[in-house]
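Teaching note: in complex prediction, the entire set of molecules is handled at once rather than each chain in isolation. The prompt given to students was simply: 'Predict the structure of this complex.' The entities are:
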Amino acid sequence: MNRRSFLAAGATAAGGVTAGCGGLLQTRSVRTPPLVEDRPDAVYVPTHVEGMKMVDGSTAGRYRFGLSYSYPHRFWVVTGTNRKRIRIGENDSVHLMVTVRDTETGVALPTSNAGIEVRKGGETVVSKSMWPMLSQNMGMHFGDNVALDGDGTYEVGVTFGPVGARKTGDFQGAFAESRSITVPLEYSSDAVENIDFRTLDDRKGQRGAVEPMGEMATQLPPADQLPGRVIGETKSGDAAFVATVLDSTPAGVDGSGSYLAVSARTPYNRYPIPMMSLSGTIEREGETVFEGPLDATLDPDLRYHYGAVVDGIESGDALELSVGAPPQVARHEGYETAFFEFSPATLTV
Amino acid sequence: MTRHGGKRGLSRRAFVKSAVAIGGSAALAACLDREGSPDLDRGSDPSSLPDRQHAWNGALETDDHGNHVPPRHRLMLYLDYGRDGSPTAGDRETVERALASLDRAYARGGEGLLWTVSYSRAYFDRFDESLPGSVGLPEPTALAPFEDPDLDTPDAVVHLASNYGSVVLAAEQALFGERETLNGVAVDATLEGVFEQSDRRTGFIGPGLPAENQDVEGIPESEPVDEDAPLYMGFKSGFEKSQASEDRVTIREGPFAGGTTQHISKIRLHLQQWYEQDSRYHRVATMFCPAHAEENRVEGVGENLGDDNGMAATGCPAHAGEDARETGVVGHAQKAARAREDGSPVILRRDFDSTDDDAATVHFLSLQRSIGDFVATRSRMNGTDVADSAAVGQRTNNGILQYLTVERRGNYLLPPRDRRALPTPTG
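The expected output is the structure of the full assembly:
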């Protein structure tokens, strides 16, 4: 019997808990309540909420890194419209998370790639490219469960960038590099056990979301605070889409005319939803005056959004938004059933 | 076998591989013992051999589908020439005699020895003259916005390949004066005193070897690599229809006509997510094409694909952009096939896997007429064009980029056989 099947057998058999590995089993079962059975195809309140522990906030170039960890937990990875539940691995110690912000504006960078290399005593313990993921208390971050080699001092290298999305305004030319930080991490399983953990038995499975967790969580501005002429908000797949029009095309976008920007965000918490294929059509008096993709773009004011140059938008125009590939971001509990099935959504100006 | 108590015991074939990685007399003796001191045909005088050093296909076996079967064990010797400035005629003669000993010792083929020697741009920079325009050999550089490789600048690289670990180890010893005979043939001269070794890279390819050598960093302890897999990622590659012909990669004009260029990158693999988190659907979609995953076109390691990974038939390369937008995932083969010219690939892969540094590694060795052909192919593989505006991430769901870190890159000229010993830029 290998260790994994031993643990599995123990987990089924042992209601009672013995010393040694039994403590581990107890921790796992307590920290991972069973999923809600009838989950809505929408954002819903998860079974529990966890705190996290900050490790470091150092900077490199224009990137301000936030490294943190929490309990290892289940999540879902997405390939096309397929989603796969990732169970906690037998040796997983923590869920490691990285967020990155612009040092100059504080704007969060929800796209690109974050790689980690965790070393202990000169030996590499973990080396991988983290999943871009969406969680209800953190929003967009890069993360994965990792198996550490027991308590002790680790060195964590994080590499981020460059940002491939189109960059506009003062972001033109920024985030063009890949940069790294290396920070120490003091890990002890006891310290992990002291991270907040709260079950949500009275709300779990209901439509809704838990509150963002302080400044680690990056929210988009409310619709009425977006720049330009906000023409409306619509929903599809339980995602919110706020459309706004700038009279001139921002620097960094080819072409000239008006600029249609669509800010896709989670309901309740206004987190950006990156990595989906969004297209738009504008109908004016029965004629199609625009039809095309809206490209992922990062702007200091509009933040992460999907945008295209259009030949003006007039009163009475109908803007139809449609999603091709759903957002290819991994999901924490409460987001795994939402943002998959999108029907076209129309806004009338 | 349980993993408790540390590393697994060395199985018979795992030991052969480990011996190549370790090197030296004891490793060779152990190898010979395990491989049963194979009785191998002797070679012939270099003058009777093909002018192209890279003309391996004619000497390789083919499988049931017509794919050329790559030699299973590999060794690359990174060498620095001991003198500054132009090489002396004496050194050139010594090198040729040492290399000719390899030709005379073993018949060419997997059941013998195949080998090449190549020279870097850094080597040619010692001369006053420049390489002719017919040789496309730039300095190595990073080839993606998200990679930061160290750049290899040895003067020369000798690549040794055989189905026998004992053969590549013995050839290495012969080149460096540690044996007087090789396969019963007298060794005329050695590279010792002319070249110094700056690096030594080893590896393997072929069913069984990755599974036997999966106890390395980068591969989870669950031993997920399929016994039938020729490479760590679990799929066949090098399908005949995905490979450039030797003609296509051969330099046509100038003093190095009959030669080719060689790119070697050292790539670390991170396969924990690949094997423990990703689905089979994801692995097939990202290695080949989303259509292959949707239609279950790949069985097991891909033996059912025959000699063709199905890119041309499915039109996968042409709809990479559409897949990125509509499906949210693009395949590695799908992206790379976009670099084909008139439907034909422009690079000839002779890559292999490795346990160097005790980490799952690929030594990605490819041949092409000009390094530019490799750069173009890699650029297509980066998929930056499909990632920027759509659902596909910079690495996420973007072929297999998420699982690779390019650590080193180097570019080399593989001269024709008659100019293989310390060539000048004019031949």
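Point out the following to students. Chain A is about 10% helix and 45% strand. The helical segments of chain A are 3-13, 21-31, 189-193.
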